[in-house]
From TrEMBL:
Notes on activation and inhibition: Feedback inhibited by histidine.
Residues annotated as signal peptide: none
Domain ATP phosphoribosyltransferase catalytic: 49-199
Alphabetical list of HAMAP family matching this protein: HisG_Long
Domain of life: Bacteria
Main location: cytoplasm
InterPro entries per UniProt: ATP-PRT_HisG_long, ATP_PRibTrfase_cat, ATP_PRibTrfase_CS, ATP_PRibTrfase_HisG, HisG_C, N-reg_PII-like_a/b, N-reg_PII/ATP_PRibTrfase_C
Full protein name: ATP phosphoribosyltransferase
Pathway: Amino-acid biosynthesis; L-histidine biosynthesis; L-histidine from 5-phospho-alpha-D-ribose 1-diphosphate: step 1/9
Family: Belongs to the ATP phosphoribosyltransferase family. Long subfamily.
Species assigned in the record: Arthrobacter bussei
């Protein structure tokens, strides 16, 4: 059985479980369940803290796991990113009291609080900055006001937490993070190819819609240029031999722009439907 680690709590937990459910796997009903076996799909899910998932995968105890890129890099384990999962996006950034800092170099000799010690130390070392790193478990934004640090490096999503603490970001983003599937380099465990294809199918089904329309035969090349699809659009004859029906996959976030352009071109009966599942 393929052994998969899944976040049990926190920012990534719900989205990870719903992605796996969408990929056709059993998911737990009770958030206290720690292990779930899905014998039909020959897979076993272990619900763990996302920070620990990299450790289990890196040691080879579990085959693959879902965690944040920032947590994975922070753990400094022997594993690699196998797939980006399209949720849990965040940015890891420096922040300090409003007006105190505006460049990275000003951190020289300062005290920096973070929950991501490994990630931060690597980043500072690569840039030749010597600062002392204070490792905290959470609520890092309070550390400056409470006097244990001069600045922080932390996950920023909306920036609301920073503002409430009287802080502002400075410097370039340290890292763009999102949820990723991680695994060990080398020979792929049995069943991993199926998991990857299924997750890829969920990503595509979420990112694309199916678009159908009718268009006059002489306009089909122009229409196909707007909706090239993945390989090539399907063009089918209609009873009226002057017209054809076209079917193509279109990026969800482009749907309305493309419908407008097709309509302008002369296409009619433009229909959009969601893709429930797919294998590309
Ligand atoms: N708004 C957010 N706050 C915290 N982490 C976020 C946010 N958005 C995305 N993430 C990502 O979620 C992961 C952190 O997961 P974690 O389980 O620690 O979440 P959490 O909600 O902060 O949980 P905890 O309450 O234990 O701190 C990181 O990969 C982080 O980049
Ligand atoms: O930019 P924002 O949208 O405000 O989100 C970012 C904040 O959310 C997270 O904290 P969390 O709620 O996980 O608490 P924690 O610091 O105890 O982990 C993170 O550590 C930041 O503090
Ligand atoms: Mg947190």
């Amino acid at each position: 059985m393929l052994r998969v680690a899944v976040p049990n709590k926190g920012a990534l937990s719900e989205a990870a479980s719903s992605m796996l459910a969408e990929a056709g796997y059993r998911q737990r009903r009770d958030s206290r369940e720690l292990v779930l076996v899905d014998p039909e799909n020959e897979i076993e899910f272990f619900f763990l803290r996302p920070r620990d998932i990299a450790v289990y995968v890196g040691s080879g105890t579990l085959d693959v796991g879902i965690t944040g890129r920032d947590l994975f890099l922070d753990a400094q384990v022997k594993a690699e990113e196998l797939m980006q999962l399209g949720f849990g996006a965040s940015t890891f950034r420096f922040a300090g009291p409003v007006g105190d800092f505006d460049a990275l170099e000003q951190l020289e000799g300062k005290r920096l609080a973070t929950s991501y010690e490994g990630l931060l130390k690597d980043y500072l070392a690569e840039r030749g900055i010597t600062a002392s790193v204070v490792r905290l478990d959470g609520a890092v934004e309070s550390s400056v006001r409470l006097g244990v640090a001069d600045a922080i490096a932390d996950v920023v999503e909306t920036g609301n937490t920073l503002r409430a603490a009287g802080m502002e970001i400075f410097g370039d983003p340290i890292l763009q993070s999102e949820a990723v599937l991680i695994g060990r380099a080398g020979e792929a465990p049995v069943g991993l190819d199926v998991l990857l294809r299924r997750l890829q199918g969920v990503l595509v089904a979420r990112q694309y819609v199916m678009m159908d329309y009718d268009v006059r035969k002489d306009l089909v090349d122009a229409a196909a240029a707007l909706t090239p699809g993945l390989e090539s659009p399907t063009v089918s004859p209609l009873r009226d031999s002057e017209w054809v029906a076209v079917r193509s996959m279109v990026r969800r976030n482009q749907t309305n722009r493309i419908m407008d352009e097709l309509y302008e071109l002369g296409a009619r009966a433009i229909l959009v439907s969601t893709i429930h599942a797919c294998r590309i």
